[in-house]
Structure to design on (180 residues):
């Protein structure tokens, strides 16, 4: 998140960017806001009209794809930003924490909804579901950026998303044989 990179991408001068945002920190927070808007459009909005396990499944699959094969050349924006700011106190870190907390809260609420509908195994811990989903996404990003590339990572993340959903799903929703 450098002024030089953004200035080049927007064909503006660094001083012009600085004058518009007043500080590098304000610019960084604006970038996080835009990255969250993109995240919500790609991951959350496609599940908006769903509930229970269907919603959770869509969120898991869309998140896995976003992390393994997302819109940014450098991989998952939030993974990169968290790495850069996790040890730095201040408003930029606080904004990243707010995003992560909101996403985790959404996953936990979705898991609770699916549990109340009887679509997840009894005793499923919504915090554990959220942790597993976040781990899946971060691993997809890691594989895409460092190990196998986007295409292979996207395939592996999709398969892992299906396994994760199947691990928590109760009954026949995902093709389980009802006679066993």
């Amino acid at each position: 998140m450098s002024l030089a990179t953004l200035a080049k991408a927007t064909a503006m001068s660094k001083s012009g960017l600085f004058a518009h945002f007043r500080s590098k920190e304000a610019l960084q927070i604006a970038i996080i806001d835009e990255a969250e808007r993109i995240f919500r459009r790609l991951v959350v909005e496609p599940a908006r009209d769903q509930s229970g396990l269907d919603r959770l499944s869509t969120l898991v699959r869309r998140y896995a794809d976003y992390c393994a094969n997302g819109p940014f050349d450098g991989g998952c924006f939030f993974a990169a930003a968290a790495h850069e700011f996790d040890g730095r106190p201040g408003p930029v870190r606080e904004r990243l924490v707010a995003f992560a907390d909101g996403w985790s809260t959404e996953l936990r609420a979705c898991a609770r909804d699916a549990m109340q509908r009887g679509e997840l195994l009894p005793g499923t811990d919504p915090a554990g579901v959220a942790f597993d989903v976040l781990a899946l996404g971060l691993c997809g990003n890691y594989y895409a950026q460092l190990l196998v590339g986007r295409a292979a990572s996207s395939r592996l993340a999709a398969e892992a998303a299906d396994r994760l959903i199947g691990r928590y799903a109760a009954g026949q929703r995902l093709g389980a044989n009802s006679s066993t």
Q: What stands out?
A: The radius of gyration is 18 Å.
